[in-house]
Amino acid sequence: MKNNIKIAIVHDFLTKIGGAEKVLQFVHQIFPDAPIFTLLYSKKGTSRMFENSSYTIISSYLNKYPDFLIRKPKLFLNKLSYAIEQFDLSKYDAVISLSNSFAHGVITRPETFHFTYCHSPMRYAWDWYHQYLEENEIGFGVIGLYIRKSLSQVRIWDKLASKRTDFWTANSINVAKRIKKYYQIDSKVIYRPVEIKNVKISPFRNNKYYLIISRLEPYKKIDLAIKAFNQNRRPLIVIGAGSCDNSLKEIAKENIKFIGWQSQNNLEEYIINAKALIFPGEEDFGLTPIEAMSFGRPVIALNKGGVKETVIDHETGVLFNNSSPQSLNEAIDCFESNINIIKPDKCRSHAKLYAKEIFLSDFKDTFFEEYDKYQQKLYEK
CATH fold of 2-193+355-380, please? Predict the structure, then answer.
């Protein structure tokens, strides 16, 4: 019976490559025949990663706009809840939504099992609402009031749409708590996956530079790290790009090097030759720290969000408590003073707890177990 289930996957936006898109690829490995429905799809933004014949991408009517607009989903804020409801999923037995904003809002038949894997309830509408307004300088002028009202309407829709899912899973305990807080719904935690590569693990204590791998956006708090390294004068390499690119370069001193996005092979080389990964922001889960640990590299991170679950303080890295350059520098000094305590092999073995194979097995087993329960309930009715 399971082989005959018609399944659709719903993903918020395919406009860039990030952790959510990696999860999508892994889920598609489990269900290779499932088409992928998405609000916005940019071939260029996703580096044509979904262009091969194994993927069937179905985008919403919003994809009629030019690519430079498609790659900025928040410009469509007032249209997204309506657009997600227009997907006709009536011919599917099950729908898997991979959601950090709107995907879980699709409308399904009573007979269709709706399974959601949640990266987080949309942060700019809920727990980051006031921070989002501040970072984007959204005041109480005409435009500011319009945006505030729009976000209020999105919150109301989102709370109602959360009831459309039959079974919720979360990518971390951190996100499961948010789902409970904002939706009053319990969820099962299935940690996001990382691909553990078979590489030789080398010591890191003699490596010269620290490393950041991140989109350069305000909420990533890369400016905090730049200020800290301006003070400590240690070598820092920053991999990534974003809207803060120029402003960060303007304040950075000569010990900090920006090298933009890198190929996967180059990225891995930079990780292998780094002393430690710097992770200054708060993330729902944080895939990059686990990827760094999988190569035997420790992580120096803000003690908030997902890293509280994934980085073991003074065993696979050092956590700092205050979002300030001083607190980060104290953590770096602590790391340097205890550099022989943290072992590359310990970092790698810990990262294996989040291996792709574990995710694939847990996701598949949970989905079919809950699908069978749902079908049983329908049969009993």
Answer: Rossmann fold (3.40.50)
Tokens (6 digits) for 210 = 């620290």
**CATH class belonging to 210-354:** alpha beta
Cα 141-147-148 angle, rounded to 5 deg: 85
Residue matched to tokens 């691909």: 195
* Spatial contact of 50 and 29, defined as CB atoms under 8 Å apart: no
Distance from C-alpha of 125 to C-alpha of 104, rounded to nearest angstrom: 15
Domain limits, the chain? 2-193+355-380, 210-354
pLDDT tens, residue by residue, 238-264: 999 988 999 999 999 999 999 999 988
Q: How far apart are CA 212 and CA 153, in angstroms?
A: 36
Token pair of 175 as six digits: 């996100």
Residues of the chain with pLDDT under 70: 1-3, 381
Instruction: List C-alpha distances in Å: 33 to 66, 251, 264, 366, 368.
Output: 29, 49, 27, 19, 16
CB 10, CB 96: distance < 8 Å: yes
